[in-house]
Specification:
It is a single chain. The protein folds into 2 domains: 7-172, Thiolase/Chalcone synthase (Peroxisomal Thiolase, Chain A, domain 1, 3-Layer(aba) Sandwich); 180-330, Thiolase/Chalcone synthase (Peroxisomal Thiolase, Chain A, domain 1), CATH 3.40.47.10. It is 32% helix and 23% strand. It contains 11 helices and 13 strands. Strands 1-7-6-4-5 form a 5-stranded mixed β-sheet, sandwiched between helices. Helix 3 (55-70) packs across helix 4 (94-102) and helix 8 packs parallel to helix 9. Bound molecules: oxa(dethia)-CoA. Oxa(dethia)-CoA (UT7) binds next to helix 2, helix 6 and helix 8.
Length: 333
């Protein structure tokens, strides 16, 4: 088998649950306001699951949408990578549940955990299987039900997140075709672990009455620390990606970053010299859906005519870990 030179994204799909929670709805639960949330984050509303709906349900819907867009059957998929920090269960892997739900009979799969940078890590890992020639059809699905790990009494985290999923299909680029995943650069900085984490329920603090009483099964975040790291790293990784490919911000047709805070996105775009019209922002309708934000933004960008075949796309993300990543791609469809 000859290894292809490049992998390309050939389809995108997304799914958010129908129920919408507005900032005013949250202001009835915690001491907050639409003005504070909008001004500090850019979020107006978010979609949330009904009880009993899990990450695999959102992932399966997004994956099915990507397959529909590409016009292929699930039985053609070789590998499913599910990126999530809110798996249905610790095990089996959510990828196994998705494989079964969509009927991808010949696919193997696994989960990948890198929080808000996860989707870019997943695309990077999936790309390697295509570039090596091992697989021809790889699904990367980012899915999170963040509301399952939010403390309903903590206004500092409750207002930030939503539920949602998105999926891309990776396939080999044709010989001589100038599209696909061009480059990636990722980092982790484990010293930032306690800035954003869920301390309970793992092997360190197995679930118990005490861990639940101490609310260790919820997201804990030091918002300002994460904010500062995110602004610094998004720019640093974005700039590094441009420089190592001999590009400037003016060469970028579309900028899609993780959607955690409008102020982080705008600051990064400005520092990188990106045209504001090329910056994709949809945090106002979904909030931070963790692994879902980037494919959800891809879908909106396509729908708005801001992501077209041949466009040079810069992706950046920062998340818990700390994790950070950037990907450069020439859009393929
Ligand atoms: O996707 C993973 C990565 N996560 C992120 O990128 C999140 C990064 N961090 C952020 O986006 C911002 O830090 C937040 C949006 C979380 C917070 O915004 P901030 O401007 O950093 O606010 P702050 O935490 O410094 O809080 C300012 C004030 C505080 O009150 P005092 O101490 O000044 O009286 C908070 O208690 O705002 C208060 N506050 C709120 N007020 C109303 C915090 N949350 C809320 C709220 N409603 N929901």
């Amino acid at each position: 088998m000859t290894a292809p030179r490049r992998a390309k994204i050939t389809a995108v799909g997304s799914y958010v649950p129908p129920k919408v929670v507005t900032n005013d709805d949250l202001a009835k639960i915690v001491d907050t306001s639409n003005e504070w949330i909008l001004e500090r984050t850019g979020i107006r509303e978010r979609h949330v699951v009904e009880k009993g709906v899990a990450a695999s349900d959102l992932a399966a819907r997004a994956a099915e949408e990507a397959l529909r867009v590409r016009g292929i059957d699930a039985s053609e998929i070789d590998l499913i990578i599910v990126v999530t920090v809110t798996p249905d269960m610790f095990f089996p892997a959510t990828a196994c549940l998705v494989q079964n739900k969509i009927g991808a009979h010949k696919a193997w799969g696994f989960d990948l955990s890198a929080a808000c940078s996860g989707f870019l890590y997943g695309v990077t890992v999936g790309t390697q299987f295509v570039v090596s020639g091992a697989h021809r059809k790889v699904l990367v699905v980012g899915a999170d039900v963040m509301t399952s790990i939010l403390n309903p009494e903590d206004r500092t985290t409750l207002v930030l997140f939503g539920d949602g999923a998105g999926a891309v299909l990776l396939e080999p680029a044709e010989e001589g075709e100038d599209v696909g995943i061009l480059d990636f650069y990722h980092e982790v900085d484990g010293a930032g672990g306690e800035s954003l984490y869920m301390p309970g329920g793992g092997s360190l603090n197995p679930s118990s009455h005490e861990t639940v009483d101490r609310k260790m099964h919820f997201v804990h975040q030091k918002g300002p620390q994460v904010f500062k790291y995110a602004v610094r790293k998004m720019e640093e990784l974005g700039r590094g990606m441009l420089e190592r490919n001999n590009l400037t911000g003016e060469d970028i047709d579309t900028f899609i970053s993780h959607q955690a805070n409008l102020r982080i996105i705008d600051a990064t775009a400005e520092k990188l010299g990106l045209d504001p019209g090329k910056v994709i922002k949809n945090i106002h309708k979904f909030g931070n859906t963790t692994a879902g934000t980037i494919p959800l933004a891809m879908c909106d960008a396509i729908a708005e005519g801001k992501l077209k075949k041949g466009d040079l796309v810069l992706f950046t993300a920062v998340g818990a870990g700390f994790t950070a990543g950037s990907v450069l791609a020439r859009w393929a469809f």
